[in-house]
Amino acid sequence: MLKRYLLLLLIVLVAGATSGCGFKDIDRRFFVVGIGLDGMEQGDKRFRLTLKLAVPSSQSESGADKSQVITQDADSVTEAVRLIKSRVDKELDFGYAKVIVLGKNIIKHDLRDTMDWLIRRRDIQMIAWMAVGDPSAEAVLKLNTRSERLAGNALMLSFGRTGVESGYIVSQYLFDFYRKMRELGLDPVLPIVQATKSGYSINTAVVFNYHNAQMYLTKDETRIFNVTFGSVSKVEVEAPMGDEHIYASIDKVKTSFKVHTPSGEKPYARLTIHTDGLLEESTVPTSPLKLGEYEQVIRQTGEKRIIELLQKFQKAGLDPLGFGLDYRSHHFQSLEEEWNNWQRIYPQLEFRINYDIKLKSTGVVR
């Protein structure tokens, strides 16, 4: 019996000794809250890696966040991480990195090597938010907004819509971005975070194909894309009434579409958008009795602008809404046959929009 207890005690001691070798206490770790990757246009290195490290603090009010930003140039992301480790006194912990920013100069090139590192590392969360940094990922991560209570929290609140809700912000997870880059018939879109002197702005986006950036969207195009894709619940729309304008606040958006390929007829995509809202601003006198007239004006303007954006995507050979994926889901052929047929169909695809808007009121003004 004594031998059994001694053996059990020995096993516990050995297990404790071996497990302690790979574990670091919290006070011996740096928590990475943001990762930035820029391409090097000058010099002999390929990448510039920027890490935003959270520094623990006893204060939690706005403006009390503490962080440290470290950059390193290298020929690979792995090498850059190893070199950064030689410059800090604590172990790097990537498990809390919720924002990954790609610089504008790196997205012009093939991203498959860069994405390989992000996907392979087991300690990087697949639900991290992806974005493009303007003018660079380093400039975005170096920003410290006065409203932040935690290091890097401002971007997380913006993309997660747990703070601000804007019709101009496109949100994209790491796993979803990687999936769309590899998926035939669905192209990814990333938001652009523009660094300014007072903070940052997020109101434009960029469309990718299977390996790099292809098309930059304006502010209005980004808002229209969000409405068309149905990725936002709150957005503002504008429509002209003669020389004047009306503005509606939309608080509910529901979108669906399907690709039709009737035999002997021109293929078309039927896109249906249901929205609810109310008038928020008008430069002309309004009346609750004319809600149907206002709905008609917004409907006609919305359909026209959506078709123009879809045709722009079509002309560039891009498909961020996933019409090609919908076509493939209804045609059961080999992968090569499906994709070749869609490549032939998409340039001649006609877009038919059913934009339904229901205005609840003209606001509190009668």
UniProtKB/TrEMBL annotation:
Coiled coil: none annotated. It comes from the Bacteria. Pfam families: Spore_GerAC, Spore_GerAC_N. It is found in: Membrane. It is a lipid-anchor. GO terms for cellular component: membrane. Residues 205-363 form the Spore germination GerAC-like C-terminal domain. InterPro entries: GerAC_N, Spore_GerAC-like, Spore_GerAC-like_C, Spore_GerAC_C_sf. The keyword Membrane applies. Keywords: Germination, Lipoprotein, Membrane, Palmitate, Signal. GO terms for biological process: spore germination. The keyword Lipoprotein applies. Residues 24-194 form the Spore germination protein N-terminal domain. This is Uncharacterized protein.
